[in-house]
Design goal:
Largest sheet: 4 strands, antiparallel
CATH class of the largest domain: Mainly Beta
Strand order of the largest sheet: 3-2-5-6
Helix content: 40-55%
CATH superfamily of the largest domain: Carboxypeptidase-like, regulatory domain
Radius of gyration: 48 Å
Structural class: alpha+beta
Order of helices and strands: HHEEEEEEEHHHHH
Number of helices: 7
């Protein structure tokens, strides 16, 4: 050690420059080997996360490196991909599932590695519980029969759409503007059709008699006393 220090002190500037160059060339292969070795250790780790019972994809599962905490999440199809080193431990965790750890083999010869990771459910659904305000079915029946139900919207609509009520309202209301227009145009059409000749006598029209007999049987001519 003393010899190396004395050599540095006694050397000239030219020798100092040569010594620095020799040192750089001495450690350059070491740096290149370390960089090559680190690049060889990196693998593209990818795969699919599925459930254990139905093998359905588990979306939005956290896939992270255990040492650094860096990672990603799965997509809607349970797929993920992230760069990692050989020998790294990957932690899979999701809401409602037990976390699982997976270690990448350190003896891989390829830069890509894929797995299918299975997650087990961590929660158990209990059966649905129904809470009733009556302790026994007999009391429920008694209270139900004693209810005073009011008319709802459906019942009111059914009464308002009754055919007899609608016909009575129509007869009292009379013709609106549209019906008056149709009636007027029908009369004018009949006038143009029979222009220059005598209109037919409805007394001898069998269709008119059929309508009259049908209306008489239906009781349309009865008075409302």
């Amino acid at each position: 050690m003393l010899t190396f220090r004395s050599m540095i002190i006694n050397c000239t500037k030219a020798n100092m420059r040569q010594l620095i160059i020799y040192t750089i060339f001495l450690f350059l292969p070491v740096f290149a080997f370390a960089q090559t070795q680190s690049q060889d250790e990196v693998v593209q780790f990818s795969g699919v996360v599925v459930t254990g019972d139905s093998l359905l994809p588990v979306a939005y599962t956290t896939v992270a490196l255990k040492n650094s905490g860096q990672g990603t999440i799965t997509d809607n199809y349970g797929f993920f991909t992230l760069p990692a080193f050989k020998g790294d431990t990957i932690r899979f965790s999701g809401v409602g599932y037990k976390p699982v750890e997976y270690t990448i083999p350190d003896t891989l010869n390829s830069k890509r590695y894929s797995v299918v990771q299975v997650l087990r459910k961590d929660t158990v659904q209990i059966p649905t519980t129904f809470v009733y305000p009556w302790p026994t079915p007999e009391e429920f029946k008694e209270e139900f029969l004693a209810l005073e139900l009011y008319e709802d919207e459906v019942e009111r609509a059914r009464k308002n759409l009754d055919p007899e009520e609608m016909y009575s309202d129509m007869m009292e209301m009379g013709m609106d503007s549209r019906e008056a227009y149709r009636y007027t145009m029908r009369r004018r059409q009949e006038d143009f059709q029979y222009a220059g000749q005598a209109p037919p006598i409805q007394v001898l029209n069998p269709i008119a008699w059929a309508k009259f007999i049908r209306a008489w049987k239906d009781g349309d001519f009865k008075r409302d006393d």
